[in-house]
Amino acid sequence: MAGTASVERVKDRATGLDKFVLREARGSSVEVYLYGGQVTFWKNNFGHQLLFVSNKATFKPPKAIRGGIQICFPQLGSHGALEQHGFARNQYWSVDESPPPFPVATSNCHIDLILKSSQEDLKIWPHSYEFRLRVALSPRGDLILTSRIKNVSSDGKPFQFTFAYHTYFSVSDISEVRVEGLETLDYLDNLQSKNRCTEQGDAVVFESEVDKIYLSAPPKIVIIDHEKKRTLVLRKEGLPDVVVWNPWDKKAKAMPDFGDDEYKNMLCVGAAAIEKPITLKPGKEWLGTQEISAVPSSYSSGQLDPEVIRRMHTI
After folding, report:
1. pLDDT tens-place string over residues 176-230
2. What reaction does this enzyme carry out catalytically (predicted)?
3. Secondary structure (DSSP) of the chain
């Protein structure tokens, strides 16, 4: 018999950090740390962990947690005085006690967090903002992240930012994984000084290091894991681009918080807004959503099974 949905705040015994555990009635669950506003664990109704977190991940501020879903704001990458991927992923968020109404009621099983400008932030990024994040778990186990960023400055000036949900998926074997929905798109290749190229394959496959930003991607992307007979369907709104990353062997060995061979079992695919920075005038708000579903699938001759297609059209 199915239970009831619940949201519980706990202190992680291993890390000492506060987190929320969301549980849906059918068995899916999500863990969200206040540190970084970061989802680290997402288990579907079958009990499978769908996100990757490195065995060497450091849960000690100010280091970001290596894995899960990192919130990259106000930038992805390294530019100017801001740290790599911005500051949102290594700050403590607060519970948003009075969130504004969301455009669509995503789920009753959710947690609302908020991050506001600090004096330290303002020294390196002189803009006043409120960043509201809702992490929700649907009754069928889908994971939905909704970000709302508002310009609350009193100086009358707009500000710009870029953004990404840097999402680490757990995969069986990176060489057996395909990403569909990005074919024929232009992308910026971070391994070639952000040269603009065009995807030539009928799917994105992995044989070496990849660090690309696909531009103006469709609202649905699928990640097909043949060995696990699983397809992950990623839907996005307000986020035109998609980041795809795998460090491969040499870079993996150079990262202290990443196992030497862990690149074989992870893949980052996340919704983003990179090519065209978002401009917010005072009082205005931006909203960007990423929704992920995991569905059992078989993959043969380049065709998704009917269940996957049905879910892509209904989620």
Report:
1. 999 999 999 999 999 999 999 999 999 999 999 999 999 999 999 999 999 999 9
2. alpha-D-glucose 6-phosphate = beta-D-glucose 6-phosphate
3. -----EEEEEE-TTT--EEEEEE-TTS-EEEEETBTTEEEEEE-TT--B-B-B-TT---STTSPPSBSEEEEBS-SS--TTSPTTBSGGGSB-EE-SSPPPPSS---SSEEEEEEE--HHHHHHS---EEEEEEEEE-TT--EEEEEEEEE--SS---EEEEEEEEEEEE-S-GGGEEEES-TT-EEEEGGGTTEEEE--SSSB--SS-EEEEE-S--SEEEEEETTTTEEEEEEEES--EEEEEE-HHHHHHH-TTS-TTGGGGEEEEEEEEEEEEEEE-TT-EEEEEEEEEEEE--EETTEE-HHHHHHHHH-
The reply, when asked if residue 66 is annotated as ligand binding, is yes
235 is in an annotated binding site: no
CATH topology of domain 7-314: Beta-galactosidase; Chain A, domain 5 (2.70.98)
Instruction: Using a pLDDT cut of 90, give the percent of the chain over it.
Output: 78
Q: What is the pTM of this model?
A: 0.92
pLDDT at residue 121 in the model: 86
What's the pLDDT at 237? 97
